[in-house]
Amino acid sequence: MLGSPHFIKADLYSAALDAPRIFIPIGATPVSAGFPSPAEDYAQRRLDINEYLIRNPVSTFFFTVKGDSMQEADIFEGDILVVDRSIEPAHGHIVVAFLNGERLVKRLSIRDGNVSLLAGNSEYPALTLKGENQLDIWGVAIGKFKRIPA
Predict the structure, then answer these.
(1) Does 3 have pLDDT greater than 70?
(2) Of all helices (H) and strands (E), which one includes residue 142?
(3) Among residues 53, 60, 44, which one has the least CA distance to residue 22?
(4) Taking Cα atoms as reference points, which of 47, 150, 71, 70 lies closest to residue 118?
(5) Do residues 143 and 53 make contact, with C-beta atoms less than 8 angstroms apart?
(6) Is residue 24 helix, strand or coil?
(7) Which element (helix H / strand E) includes 135?
(8) 22-33 pLDDT, tens digit each
(9) Which of the residues 27, 57, 82, 92 could staple to 16 if both were Cys, CB 3.0 to 4.6 A apart?
(10) Annotated active-site positions, please?
């Protein structure tokens, strides 16, 4: 491709459909991150993480993040991205892309006919698509899992 991104459309995969549904208790009131409020002793609802994060099971995949280029977008090494291939990539989306065969996670920028992949770390330059580059947008990040050190 000469300077033009190729947006890969979703393939149909049945493996995601076989994922078991797991319902986890969720509190009826949000947790305060400010001043303490009375705590809730029991959960009144249940949350299925698949329902919460996955809109299109056959086109959703998980990727473990390596590196620090997206830390200003709150994406850190070891996080697991939830990526949906059925979403049409647009300006501002965080995407998983292949640039000249290398898989990356970056913010997509489309301005005045120019396409760039932007890092979420000021130490990394923007990757602006030029005639000799091949860009395939694989999917759009819609969420992430993160472990909190205990």
Answers:
(1) no
(2) strand 135-145
(3) 53
(4) 70
(5) yes
(6) strand
(7) strand 135-145
(8) 555 555 556 666
(9) 57
(10) 69, 106
